[in-house]
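Final report, closing paragraph on structural work. Over the funding period we assembled a curated collection of sequence-structure pairs, and we close with a single example.
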Amino acid sequence: MDTPPVSTAITIRRAEPSDYEAVQRIFAGANAISGTLQLPFPAAETWRKRLSEPADDLYVLVACVAGEVVGQLGLHSFPHSPRRRHVGQLGMAVRDDWQGRGVGRALMQAAIDLAEKWLQLTRLELEVYTDNELAVQLYKKCGFVIEGTLARYAFRNGSYVDAYAMARLRTA
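Its predicted structure, as stored:
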């Protein structure tokens, strides 16, 4: 497969039910699966249901290059929890062949804009494996700080791995 140029335009939009096969392909990648809490061998039907029947508190964005979905981000909010109504939780994956090409940054910028300018969220949270250095650096560039380390956070590829709890607080 040819490596796509870095300068290719990335567009962000809300996920549609018809995106389910493309999102399933994202999570079928070894690197993408390794960086998330998803299990290997994702079923297309699972993603069809998730995108066809999203919860009211879930905003799913996709990153597209030349009309092809190459990244996905979920923003969970808590509109029915009075004490956590100001918080959003993020989870993201980028297709293996598009990692390191600006897709994650574009998704994060869109999610931050949606959260802070439209949903009135003042705290964004995420967890990231401590060995995912590229993602940690991206999140820091987007204003997230490490709030703590979650020891033995998840079981991945035969062993337990740690994760950082990171958050971004809106200052204005």
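The chain has five helices and seven strands. The mean pLDDT is 92. We thank the funder for supporting this effort.
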